[in-house]
Design brief:
3 domains, Nucleotidyltransferase, domain 5, 18 strands, binds magnesium ion, five-stranded mixed β-sheet, binds adenosine-5'-triphosphate, Actin, Chain A, domain 4, alpha+beta
């Protein structure tokens, strides 16, 4: 049996192979380059992302997963099939594959149907769909139990999942279409408005990840290259971390507002335990300097972040794929979905 876990992120698709080598076998941008009216696939994953902002008119870069939703089923299937191939799960092997597939917290039946259809189109037959917060907790090395509630927050590129859960179920939780992409868009807008510089998506993302910080002490800087808003000529300017801090902070504040709503729904005993245990923060945005500390100060509780928080969900999926006992526990839990 080939055992895998898939985290189909809005930014990055991650695949874990639990049968050979036990590890992350793929992490590639969730995008496809297509050309012409027939939308022929020209490149997938990192090869496609290299083309963002640089393509000729007849080539288009598509992110088939947007804010956690499958917005282009056909291209999502073409992309995932290619990724499966890249991790050695070739078409003739598909019959023997058992998959743990992450889905956003509290996904609607329509979205779950879309995921099921996608898996089917890729030839994956035995698939266990699991709410992302369980996977984020497991992949952050937390132990799930019936009695001890875990508070998780995963901030990805397009989706944030917030949940309080125990092995018994999700006590309160929600997913919202907010994440790193909003911050990138905010940086683009601010550069144009304040500095008269047009920059592309990749540049904005690089600036955010390289010098973005919510700590007052950090004063990093980088050079942003783009074109002048007025003359359209190539131009570049130096950017300080302080100038883009607000572009990040506004979205973290929004997320914290929703997290407050989740916490407000908790029974008193659970709320007390959550406060004592703290928050498990994951997703790529948790890597941005000062975000964990900012969240900790705002929520007035400890925040735990693993070394590679962008992989927490797929690592959690890998743990379930690998461990038959855990797999059976989750199979029972999702038997009626
Ligand atoms: N060092 C980093 N490595 C990867 N992503 C980072 C890093 N620092 C910040 N990020 C940001 O984190 C986001 C990607 O995180 P993640 O991989 O968890 O998202 P995703 O799972 O693809 O998307 P989603 O869960 O929202 O559907 C992007 O906005 C990216 O720019
Ligand atoms: Mg994710």
């Amino acid at each position: 049996m080939i055992k895998i876990a898939i985290d189909l992120g809005s930014s990055t698709t991650k695949i874990y192979r639990a049968d050979s080598g036990n590890g992350i076998a793929l992490a590639e941008p969730s995008c496809v380059a297509v050309s012409g009216v027939e939308r022929t696939v020209k490149a997938v994953g990192k090869d496609a992302k290299k083309l963002v902002g640089k393509t000729a008119e007849f080539t288009q870069i598509v992110f088939p997963i947007h804010e956690g939703e499958i917005v282009d089923g056909k291209l999502a299937a073409a992309m995932l099939k290619e990724f499966l191939n890249r991790v050695g799960v070739h078409p003739h092997l598909l019959k023997r594959v058992q998959t743990v597939f992450s889905v956003p917290c509290g996904a609607s039946q329509t979205l779950l149907d879309d995921y099921a259809l996608l898996a089917e189109e890729c030839g994956l037959r035995k698939v266990l769909f699991v709410d992302a917060p369980y996977l984020a907790a497991l992949g952050s090395d937390l132990v799930l139990s019936e009695s001890n509630p875990i508070f998780t927050m995963d901030i990805g590129g397009g989706v944030t999942n917030v949940a309080v859960l125990s092995l018994g179920g999700i006590i309160a939780g929600l997913s919202m279409n907010l994440g790193g992409h909003n911050m990138d868009a905010n940086i683009i807008e601010k550069m144009a408005r304040q500095n008269g510089l047009n920059i592309g998506d990749l540049t904005a993302e690089r600036i955010k990840n390289e010098i973005g910080s919510l700590s007052d002490k950090v004063r990093a800087s980088t050079v942003a290259q783009g074109s002048s808003v007025q003359t359209f000529y190539p131009a570049s300017i130096a950017v300080q971390s302080g100038e883009i801090a607000d572009c990040i902070r506004v979205y973290i504040d929004k997320i914290l507002e929703y997290a407050g709503m989740v916490l407000n729904q908790l029974p008193a005993e659970v709320a007390a335990a959550v406060h004592k245990n703290g928050l498990c923060l994951s997703g790529g945005v948790a890597k941005i300097d000062g975000v964990a500390e900012y969240v900790s100060r705002s929520l007035e509780m400890d925040v735990h972040v693993t070394e590679e928080p962008q992989f927490a969900v797929v690592l959690g999926g890998g743990m379930i794929a690998r461990d038959q006992r855990l797999y059976n526990v989750f199979s029972k839990k999702y038997a009626n979905v």
